[in-house]
Amino acid sequence: xFAQRDYSILDAVLPSTTTAxxxxxxxxxxxxxMAPQDPRSQLVLHMNWKGRTLPVLFRSLPTRDSVPxxxxxxxxxxPQPPVDDIVRASPYSQIVRGNYRSPTHIVFGTDDxxxxxxxxxxxxxxxxxxxxxxxxxxxxxEPHLFDLFRDPDGARWEAIQxxxxxxxxxIGKT
Length: 174
Description:
By secondary structure, the chain is mainly α.
């Protein structure tokens, strides 16, 4: 479906700074926050499914109008940044190097289709091994950003509650 679509990630770059963005209602956002025909959604999907998150975040993107037509395709396959840059930006690398000390609670769904839940577990394990105060809530069967969806039985709110309690306890508000 998405992988076969003809799209340019540069269509997602707006000429001015974007501080908030909503899918146009006419596009029927899937999961409440993405629509495969929306350029901003295409950029997010491209970054995740094509393994291009780091090149986009590290180098940013120009507007489509500022790029000669013959160079447009090159932005679909930007090279990965140097390993040293990745290490400097990697939370996991900073944890194992002793540069990260903040108490952290991670909430994750087992059906996240963008980031494997095992990656979150691995990060929490590393924090605990480094002596960092860390909590982890894993919700069985829940997707990415599950807390944004309707919650008729309160199960999602129940999953988020330990993270709020973790935070409030650390700032002395319990």
